[in-house]
Specification:
4-stranded parallel sheet, Oxidized Rhodanese, domain 1, two-stranded antiparallel ribbon, 5 helices
Length: about 150
């Protein structure tokens, strides 16, 4: 009987550890309307991290910077380009948006690891996800990307 209890306790501990390891803190999030309002008020730098072909397909959130996360120099190049765009101020509030919020979680983590302190994930993205209907379905303004 004690061996059975030890087995159950060990299995439970391993399960809890694996759940914790898989649930990395993704950081703060904003709904699309909140991100738009903050960007319009000059309180948030909005960055669309998708690829140029995606920008052409849907357009880009109004006044968003376009910084492709698939940077030629990898994640460090992406981080450096973001730093350049915000004048080196790693305390600048930044809102990241992609198609559905998945890629923004990864880049949010990369920016936080690089010392950025206020990086927000717009989890519903441009086209919607479980987090919400998305920028486009909410009727928020987009700009065509003719030069992408």
């Amino acid at each position: 009987m004690p061996v059975q209890r030890l087995f159950v306790a060990t299995a439970t501990a391993l399960m809890l550890l694996s759940i914790h390891a898989c649930s990395r803190d993704s950081g703060p999030a904003l709904a699309a309307p909140e991100a738009f309002a903050q960007a319009q008020a000059g309180k948030l730098t909005l960055i669309d991290i998708r690829r140029p072909d995606e920008w052409r397909q849907t357009g880009v959130a109004k006044n968003a910077l376009r910084i492709n996360m698939a940077h030629p120099q990898g994640a460090s190049g992406f981080v450096q380009q973001v730093a350049t765009e915000v004048g080196g101020d790693r305390n600048t509030p930044i809102g990241l948006i992609c198609r559905t919020g998945n890629r923004t979680s990864h880049m949010q983590h990369a920016l936080r690891e690089a010392g950025f302190t206020q990086v927000y994930n717009i989890k519903e993205g441009m086209v919607g996800s479980a987090a919400g209907p998305g920028w486009i379905a909410r009727g928020l303004p987009v700009e065509p990307c003719k030069t992408c």
